[in-house]
Write a structure and sequence with these properties.
This protein has helices at residues 2-5, 47-59, 69-72; strands at 16-21, 24-30, 35-40, 63-68. The protein is α+β, with helices and mostly antiparallel strands and 89 residues long. The protein has one domain (2-72): VSR Endonuclease (Endonuclease, Chain A), CATH 3.40.960.10.
């Protein structure tokens, strides 16, 4: 998922990974748009804890998107390049 988000590949949005917000560490965050993307793995097996975390982050003005890890690792659609080709001068 980081390959899709880093380097402003997604609509020019600047994401950072593994950032501390309050007492939580979020997977990916775009501070400008207050958007958090979470790739849920086995550490997210407690729906009550996730709900409390999401409620706190939402109260701080963030939007939280969650994707199961298996979904985050699915092959990308045809035509999607993980790393854009650099133009030669």
């Amino acid at each position: 998922m980081w390959a899709l988000l880093r380097g402003r590949h997604l609509e020019g949005l600047k994401f950072q990974r593994q950032k501390v917000i309050g007492r939580y560490i979020v997977d990916f965050v775009c501070f400008r748009h207050r958007l958090i993307v979470e790739a849920d793995g086995p550490q997210h097996d407690d729906p009550d804890a996730d709900a409390a975390r999401d409620a706190w982050l939402t109260a701080q003005g963030f939007r939280v998107l969650r994707f199961p890890n298996r979904r985050a690792r699915e092959p990308q659609p045809r035509g999607h390049r993980r790393h854009p080709r650099r133009r030669r001068a």
